[in-house]
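Hey all, sorry for the wall of text incoming. These are the two entities for the joint prediction.
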Amino acid sequence: MRLTLAIIIAKLASFFVKALNQGQATSLPGLLARKIDPKVLAKLSRKLKKGVIIVSGTNGKTTPTRLISNILKEANFSFIHNRAGANLLSGVTSSLLEKCSITGSLNQDWAIFEVDEATVPKVAEQTKPKVIVLMNLFRDQLDRYGELEKLANLWRETINNLPEETKIILNADDPLVSSIAINNKNIYFYGVNNENYKIEKIAESADSKNCPNCKEPLVYSALFYSHIGKYVCPKCGLKRPNLNLSAEEIRLNSFENIELKLRQNTNQLDLKAYLPGFYNAYNVLASTTVGLNLNISEDKIKQGIKNTKAAFGRLERFKLDNHNAILMLVKNPTGFNEVIRLLEIDGKKKKIIITLNDNIPDGRDISWIWDVDFERLIKTADYIFVAGQRAEELVLRLKYAGFNLNSLKQEKDYCKLLEISLAKLDNDETLYILPTYSSMLDLRKVIAEKGCVKKTWA
Amino acid sequence: MKLNIGYLYPNIMNIYGDRGNVIAFAKRCEWRGLETEITDLDINTTIDSEKYDFYFFGGGQDKEQILASKDLRKNKANLKEAVEKGAVILSVCGGYQLLGNYYQPLKSEKLMGLGILNIKTLASNDRMIGNILIESGLINSKKIVGFENHSGKTYLGEGVKPLGKVLKGWGNNGEDGFEGARYKNVFGTYMHGSVLPKNNEFCDLLIKLALKRRYGEVELKDLDNSAEENARKIAENIKQ
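and here's what came out:
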């Protein structure tokens, strides 16, 4: 009875939000329904034919969720997934409420949820997932999340409380994530064995250079980015666990795609993903591990991965007037540094727009830009345009990185910004746009509504 | 002229972009033709009390702070001597707390500090987060701006002056209306941001003090500070 009332209220709320043109109702229905029936998420997730898949990590929620969805689609499973960004308890609940009947029945096989790092314990407790994928922990908006260590501890507790049969899929290459593994659980590790892409030095933004157990500095035989790599602790012996699924070879093909040779025991899998950049190897590894664990055939996994296009703002490509543009969301030092690495891939100097906001989705604290390797970015940039609420701080960061401010233009009006940056481009030159989350939404709105530039999908 | 910069625990105490302070100090020296050398003072380093003109000590996460606290003990006498002889220290957040007498967590044992600043810090359940603006008599522009994020409440003892009066934000403890601490050339603050780049006058004050220690009074060349002023103006007017 309570559940039915909760569902009715949620559906009414959703109807009115949409009717009044107030958005997509991704959170409010769940929020209201949980007020009426706090167990609504638990009750509804039990109605799924197969169950729930949870994906979380600082950098790697939206893309792996999309990859897994496409694999499920190839395997003819029906599923529900929450919209990108609506990844708190209310958003997850709303996605089920949208699809359930008034009596609370659901016809879908799976629900796949991307979940905010700090919300994982609550969603896991209520939904008792069949599969949980934990990607990585980087420094990101610590003003909201508290410290990384605390998140890792929360995740460890979560794993400990999961039902025995839950398949727990962990990134072996992230010591903070791999060290939460508990012996008597179904743990599957994925990681990278190819050492072609290792870097020499730990980045300033790396968060976990010390052993999570004893705090001794870790020794890396291969470091891929931030604190991700093949590591061992010289004091307590903690080391990267053995891999259930490994990437033996990775080829990065410019801004186009990546090709991977994966290995599971003696079995080899060749895959291609239209998701450029080294870090996407991890997204492919994680989603392939999910597919294999659900007994989906290799062909279907491959096809699902091949079908996946870059998510909202993650290397999205389109045309602005007659120019190619590539949009790459930046939200924390590690992600930004990986974008910088990607910008170097073709060796060409670039014209780059960077926008910085300090709203809650961006992180109110903008100190993080001082951890970004702008000293490296300026070697790839021949002109930089800056905008956003905190554009002035970006100018300052670039000044202290040693960038020549004569090759920099600040313009807070997004229309003008696009006009002047497009005017600077040569005919066949691509414009690279690096916004923080809320400034990306502002920029999109301007592109869509004002029509100051003509946007088409590339 | 050359200044030696000692960067305390860059690998474990460098949360929230605090290294921007070292970048700013070094760049503003470089732009004036002053040479700098940055030395990482990591775990297990013995500090030469004579060598460094400017030390930077940033914030860290809980476990890292414990590690730093233990490691600091062997350098306690050296650092105290350096301070008494005029060395300049900027400490932020966790580093600030560790320069004090102690940090008292909610449940666990007291974490002993260096006792260079006569301050104590008590853990609390309040998370003091947001933009912060203070008024400080140290510099002509009178205002220093940053972003704070701490739950420790710091109380100043005798002989230590606050850095300034809180105009917006929490400051040392959210109770007495003051932020930061100063003793001789040792400065402590909860301000991230990074604090030095956009508070260029504060940065220049530290450079002057560091130069004075080694070379006596030195007049600093003027720099174009328009980018700094623009960034500071925006930060000053932002809501807490």
